[in-house]
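Q: Structure tokens for this one, please.
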Amino acid sequence: MVFGSTLISFTGLIIRNMESAGALEINLIRGISLSITVFLILLFKYKLSAVSKIIAVGKPGLAAGFALATAGICLLQAMTNTTVAATLFICSSVPFLTAILAWFLLKETIAKFTLAAMCCAAVGVGIMLLGNDGTKSSYGALMAFFTAISFSVYAVIVRKHRSIEMLPALAISGILISLFCLLLLKNTLTFTWMDMFRCMLLGCFVSLIPNMLFLYSTRYLLAGELTFFMLFEFALGPFWVWIFINEVPSIWTMAGGFIVMTSVVIFILKEIKSKRFT
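A: Here is the predicted structure, written as tokens:
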């Protein structure tokens, strides 16, 4: 999960380097490339039984794909109607929402130490956003909240049905996002060949691998713990644009990011020391 969160934290850097593609174009190409890559992986892994694996996801897979697609679409709406800072602040509630849902639906309880680590990390995210002007769009804030809820629902679904091969759910989410963006864009596509390459990189690699690792980790981590590692992504993202394109983060961002990463690292070290993963 740490590796996956680190990889997907490069998303902002890649988007920053887009030449002309907008949010809809990015999500359209990303969704298509994600779906195609997942189908190819399933075909390579299961060969003739790939179709049966896709059918086997049933209603849980469809629900998971729909929830993940909804999260992606709402995130797009949030970031285009309010600041990125406000969006990330609201999305930082994902671990807590997931833990609550898992407690009600899966009877999974979060240990006191894990809850403390979550709270410390949430404080870190809050500090990161102190230096940013918040934004006053209630619609954008509402979409960010729906993003958090949708992803929490997705996490609980895949955790509950961890015995099912949920890779097809990623393809379903990519198809739904692509169709949504295509309907809005119609024939007004604007992007360069390099933009297309960057979008495909997002779909085939930067989005795919973390999501695959997320699904794999559902076998070993509780639902609330799974989404806890998303905060690592929020902390690392600003540092990549600082290092590679000299977009200097504020002192608040650096301080908050340090708290988030420290919370995650301490949590991991404690779990390893307890030999939970051996």
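A few notes: The chain has 15 helices and no strands. Residues 2-273 form one domain.
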